[in-house]
């Protein structure tokens, strides 16, 4: 696709990258068929090719209306189009650069700005999110049933002793923000698995939100701040010999793997960010790389439908890995139709585009529940909470299922102390 960037964007240090991405698109339209929003809305401008065209027109200096922003807002950033594209177009990176420039140019209504500011000021901070969810849990009995279902669980906080770990860790874990509040069982399951394998781990206390929520809401500086804080939290342990950063929420894992790209223009952090991105692993990817063995067992909830999050299959390109691990320990994975399509969660998307998110969830659950599984497994806290609102069976993180396969003593909570290296 031909593109001449307008002179008023020449000062943006990412514009050469945007231009190269635009030129790599040959406008073939293969991506359109696998785009969930195009499938629902049927409008070319609600598919990847149309959105790329809108960004190209804007960056070339053509007049742009708020309609363009609406079409970009409806994009899930699921990256199914990247998996389909034969030309390797880096769509998500283009949208990130395009939206960052388009939003200030067009502006947003005050109600949208307030909604986005609230999300950014609450979700990345567990100390703010937890009390709000606790209050919501108390009042949910008087709410309409469909509203009450949307309030995520808020289990008791994880004990401080389970948050730190070894002083000489081989791997670092990220507790995350929403996951640490709503599904702490995920990281506890990962810790049990690492204890079983006698791998010393640590959750550096000052690491937190990965920055994805802010980045996807076009608050780039805020996102970079979260990334620098995490790098500062992890770096001393990496200098001391930590060999991997295991991120159990696949959405956060996809973000950490892009720290190098995000901080490439920051001379103080570029090299560290590149190294951090190299060390980031989804736990499933890492367990397979390290060739660990697990006992097989006979699970009581044997039939599992696995929902591979977009951040796992499209962003991290890790299709099929988790399925191998679950099958090895004894689960039967049922076939799932349209497994490449997003469930509608997509970070804050389910809150900002509730109608589309609901439609996508209904479609996804009809595929996941078609073979009557005992439970649904997934790899990202956002998908887990979103699907659980309407699912007829439990929705669990796959790490919990793997931890269930470990010897009874560990499952009963008699965890070993993290092994000292
Ligand atoms: S498939 Fe790739 S090259 Fe073809 S229109 Fe879509 S983004 Fe462009
Ligand atoms: S990221 Fe997903 S929703 Fe957005 S254009 Fe690509 S396929 Fe469609």
Automatic annotation (TrEMBL):
Its EC number is 1.1.99.14
Cell membrane as a keyword of this entry, yes or no, is no
Question: What is its biological role?
Answer: Component of a complex that catalyzes the oxidation of glycolate to glyoxylate.
As to how many cofactors bind and how, the note says:
Binds 2 [4Fe-4S] clusters.
Q: Which cofactor does it need?
A: [4Fe-4S] cluster
Coiled coil regions in record? none
Protein name as annotated: Glycolate oxidase iron-sulfur subunit
Top-level taxon of origin:
Bacteria
Name the InterPro entries for this protein: 4Fe4S_Fe-S-bd, 4Fe4S_Fe_S_CS, Cys_rich_dom, Glc_ox_4Fe-4S, Helical_ferredxn
Question: 4Fe-4S ferredoxin-type domain: from which residue to which, for each copy?
Answer: 16-47, 66-95
Which GO terms fall under molecular function for this chain's record? 4 iron, 4 sulfur cluster binding; glycolate dehydrogenase activity; metal ion binding
Which reactions are catalysed by this chain? Answer: (R)-lactate + A = pyruvate + AH2; glycolate + A = glyoxylate + AH2
Give the keywords, sorted: 4Fe-4S, Electron transport, Iron, Iron-sulfur, Metal-binding, Oxidoreductase, Repeat, Transport
């Amino acid at each position: 696709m031909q593109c001449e960037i307008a002179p008023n964007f020449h000062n943006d240090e990412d514009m050469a990258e945007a231009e190269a991405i635009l030129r790599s698109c040959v406008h073939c339209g293969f991506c359109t068929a696998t785009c969930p929003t195009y499938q629902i809305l049927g409008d070319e401008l609600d598919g990847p090719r149309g959105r790329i065209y809108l960004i190209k027109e804007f960056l070339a200096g053509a007049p742009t209306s708020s309609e363009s922003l609406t079409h970009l807002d409806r994009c899930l950033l699921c990256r199914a189009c990247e998996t389909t594209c034969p030309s390797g177009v880096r769509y998500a990176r283009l949208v990130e650069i395009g939206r960052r420039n388009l939003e200030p140019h067009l502006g947003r209504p005050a109600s949208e700005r307030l909604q986005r500011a609230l999300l950014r000021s609450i979700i990345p901070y567990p100390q703010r999110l937890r009390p709000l969810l606790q209050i919501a849990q108390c009042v949910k009995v008087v709410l309409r049933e469909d509203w009450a279902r949307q309030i995520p669980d808020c289990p008791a906080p994880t004990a401080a002793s389970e948050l730190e770990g070894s002083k000489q860790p081989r791997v670092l874990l990220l507790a995350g923000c929403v996951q640490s509040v709503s599904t702490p069982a995920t990281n506890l399951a990962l810790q049990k698995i690492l204890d079983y394998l006698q791998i010393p781990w640590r959750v550096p206390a000052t690491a937190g939100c990965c920055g994805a929520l802010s980045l996807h809401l076009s608050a780039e500086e805020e996102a970079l701040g979260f990334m620098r804080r995490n790098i500062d939290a992890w770096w001393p342990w990496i200098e001391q010999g930590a060999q991997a950063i295991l991120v159990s929420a696949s959405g956060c894992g996809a973000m950490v793997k892009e720290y190098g790209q995000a901080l490439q223009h920051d001379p103080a952090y570029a090299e560290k960010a590149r190294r951090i991105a190299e060390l980031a692993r989804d736990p499933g990817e890492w367990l397979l790389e390290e060739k660990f063995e697990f006992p097989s067992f006979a699970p009581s909830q044997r039939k599992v439908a696995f929902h591979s999050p977009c951040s796992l299959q499209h962003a991290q390109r890790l299709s099929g890995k988790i399925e191998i691990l679950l099958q090895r320990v004894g689960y039967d994975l049922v076939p799932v139709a349209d497994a490449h399509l997003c469930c509608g969660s997509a970070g804050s998307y389910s809150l900002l585009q509730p109608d589309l998110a609901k439609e996508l969830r209904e479609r996804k659950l009809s595929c996941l529940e078609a073979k009557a599984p005992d439970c649904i497994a997934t790899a990202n806290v956002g998908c887990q909470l979103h699907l659980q609102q309407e699912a007829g069976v439990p929705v669990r993180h796959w790490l919990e299922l793997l931890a269930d396969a470990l010897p009874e003593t560990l499952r009963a909570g008699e965890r070993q102390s993290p092994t000292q290296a």
